[in-house]
Amino acid sequence: MPPKKKTKKTMKKIQERSDNDLEAKYRRSVLDIAVLQDHIAVQCESVRTVQSDRVDLRRRMRDMEQTLQHERQDHRDVNSDFSRQYKTMQIELTNKVKRLEKEVSRLNEELALCQEELRKERREREQMEQEKDTAMNDLQHKMDNMETDYEKILHDTLDSLTSQLPVTRQRREDESTTLHQHHKALLSEFGLNARDM
């Protein structure tokens, strides 16, 4: 069979169908383009947001790195300062320990000298106390002997005086009587009576 000849009507239908297909394709393409443009706009906005976030993050990261560097430097400075203070304190403490050890050694020597001096003083004091006790005992013994001697002398003297007392009394009475008589005689010579006086 030979091919059918296309009629004008068929041709026209084909043409219209073709135009409809083209128009549908065109509309679909326009819609796809609009969707793609929206998608690209969303993607561009997303990219801009991501870039902005990236810039912010980089800036924050730089700030944090600087802060970290400052903190590290501060930490190094603090460590350095602590090390210096520690060394200074260690040197001061070592010097103080040496000074105190010398002081302790000197004080121990002084203590030993003082203890020796104290022992010497105690020995001398004990010796002096013994000598004093001996001297006091000797003096007490001498005083006891002197007391005994004085008592003996006193008793002898008292005995002697007691024995001489009657003789002395008699002699005094005799002398008194003689003196009395003499005064009486003198008064009578002057013509006075002794009883009137």
TrEMBL record:
Predominant place of localization: cytoplasm
Compartments in which it is found: Cytoplasm, Cytoskeleton, Flagellum axoneme
Superkingdom in the source lineage: Eukaryota
InterPro entries reported in the protein's UniProt record: DRC12-like (IPR033585)
Coiled-coil residue spans: 47-156
Keywords, alphabetical: Cell projection, Cilium, Coiled coil, Cytoplasm, Cytoskeleton, Flagellum
Annotated function: Component of the nexin-dynein regulatory complex (N-DRC), a key regulator of ciliary/flagellar motility which maintains the alignment and integrity of the distal axoneme and regulates microtubule sliding in motile axonemes.
Family: Belongs to the DRC12 family.
Quaternary organization: Component of the nexin-dynein regulatory complex (N-DRC).
UniProt protein name: Dynein regulatory complex protein 12
Source species: Scophthalmus maximus
